Amino acid sequence: MKAWTAITAGASVLAIFLIPSPTSVFTDNNTRARKIPWHFLGHRTFYIYSVAIILQSCGYGIPQTYLNTYAHEVALLSQASATLLLTLFNIPGIASSSFFGYLSDNKHFSLSATTVTSISAVSSALSAFLLWGLTSQGSMALLVLFSITFGFFAGGYSATWGGVINELEREAASNNEAVDPGMLYGLLNGARGIGYVSGGLAGVPLLKAGS
């Protein structure tokens, strides 16, 4: 794992230097620094969604990381079955992204960003508690159902960000403020990264406590 991390990090750094720098037809005297509006930092809505993304990302990484180990060592399933569960966990991602993206942007019936994100968060939490938390030893059927259900509802959470950004844009417009959607998306991605790292750090003592 450490070797693979080093290879990935090294390849990513080298790729940055291979990106060509576009030549500008403007002189330095004619260019002006682009000002980024930071008004959204004064609104509570941005922080609420950021914290929600951190918590959801933290919870998403733990089952994905330890599902294979749990199935093989705790549920006493074969390694092939444990690998199958991890595959089933990731397969629903495309369908879930399309589904939650549709809920966020559909014109036929309007759902708030809070409602759409809650559907993903609550459904994934219930599937983890009911289908994984209450599974009996060696229950392959429940673990398969958990992998598909949790993978679908948790995997599509990032597709709800379009609705979140739309809500932040409407809030900014109501206050006659400018907003940069690209900056918002980047910060939401940053919140997801914090959640992934936090989930990994929290998962180690949890795994030790359960062993």
Q: Would you write up a description of this structure?
A:
The protein is an all-alpha fold. Helix content is 73%, strand content 0%. The chain is built from eight helices and no strands. Helix 4 packs across helix 6 and helix 5 packs antiparallel against helix 7. About 2% of the residues have low confidence.
Total DSSP helices: 8
Structural class: mainly alpha
* Run of helices and strands: HHHHHHHH
Strand content: under 5%
**Helicity range of the residues?**
over 70%
What would the average pLDDT be, to the nearest integer? 81
Please state the overall shape, judged from the principal axes of the Cα atoms: globular
What separation lies between the terminal Cα atoms?
A: 21 Å
Q: Rounded to an integer, what's the Rg over CA atoms?
A: 21 Å
* Number of E-state strands: 0
Question: Sheet with the most strands?
Answer: none
List the helices and strands and how they pair.
Elements: H1 2-18, H2 44-74, H3 79-90, H4 93-105, H5 113-132, H6 140-155, H7 161-174, H8 181-210
Could you list some keywords that capture this structure?
211 residues, mainly alpha, globular
Outline of the structure:
The chain has about 210 residues and is mainly α.
